[in-house]
Amino acid sequence: MSFDNDELRDEYPDGTVRLRNPNIELMDQDILYHLALGSGSHDLVEMFGDVKFVCMGGTPKRMEQFAYTIMAEIGHKLPCGTTLQDISQFSYRYSMYKVGPVLSISHGMGIPSVGILLHEVIKLMYHAKVRDPVFFRIGTCGGIGYEGGTVVISEEAVDGALKNALELTVLGKNIQRPAKLDKRLVRELKALSDPEDPYDTVTGKTMCTYDFYEGQGRLDGAFCDFTETDKMEYLESIHKAGVVNIEMESLAFAALTHHAGIKAAVICVTLLDRLKGDQVLAPKEVLDEWQQRPTKLVCRYIKRYLQMKGRLSLDGHGSICVKSPRRFKLVQQESETYD
Ligand SMILES: O=P(O)(O)O[C@@H]1C[C@H](O)[C@@H](CO)O1
Ligand SMILES: O=c1cc[nH]c(=O)[nH]1
Fold this sequence. Notes:
Family: Belongs to the PNP/UDP phosphorylase family.
Organism: Vanessa tameamea (Kamehameha butterfly)
Strand content: 15-25%
Bound molecules: the ligand O=P(O)(O)O[C@@H]1C[C@H](O)[C@@H](CO)O1, uracil
Number of strands: 15
Order of helices and strands: HEEHEHEEHEEEEHEHEHEHEEE
Strand order of the largest sheet: 6-11-10-7-12
Shape: globular
Number of helices: 8
Largest sheet: 5 strands, mixed, barrel
Distance between the termini: 18 Å
GO biological process, one term: uridine catabolic process
GO molecular function: uridine phosphorylase activity
Binding site for phosphate: 93, 137-140
């Protein structure tokens, strides 16, 4: 596993997530309000200490489906007659599912929503003493020059003015956080795309906006003060600058994970080519199938990682096995923890 931000990796050599906030360890307890969890009320090490992958996406449904998909892929078994529990159900904000070493969490729409979640999930990683977690955003986007159904792995995130940083107003002053993503992770994910996949998987710059309509140059919002010519000039200019897709979370996702020294990637599927239109016209069943595509890539990455770590392998009969340093058993037979 590599890190682009080597400075941070040197600073925190044991791989645990350290907070850039001295106040937290002085507090009696830390209430992760929007997750319905707390360091005083829950044994976060026991509950989350084995987490390795944190996968986020906009909707609770997508992330519940992802949790069931990854469960089947890694052969994780639930006790008979049980279903996955939404751990953050009583926050009434986000949904969170845990499947072995994988957390699947909905982040809602836009930078403020994903930003609040990232603060609390990064603190959760810290309280749980998780080592070297990898964060993924599994999302949807508008393509720039790419048809609907194309998978885009972000090389970096830029704002609507092509700035590669998240701007925040803190105590009345504007601060900027670089919105960097892990380059090696981009290459590893791209290498996991299969030539047999019936769609393209591409890499490039992702533009992140604060709005779906005017902010993304749409002509079909409730308001529009520009012409179609203005819109096309803008979209062509960002296309020329290397932007391949537009969505609404990557800037905060890249900036906050980078600031915490956490390796992260953004993988989205395009719902339309914005050079050809504004409205999302694909039927619901098609949209549902497209949304599975980034998920497949992330599943391949997680399975590959677990196989390389010797925690997941195929036995002589083609069944998935989960190994631990102390034991090796068929996961089909019982529920597993990854230690
Ligand atoms: O992960 P999702 O599908 O929520 O990402 C994009 C960006 C906005 O949140 C939303 C707009 O439709 O879709
Ligand atoms: O065009 C689109 C489609 C999905 N999400 C966005 O933010 N924009």
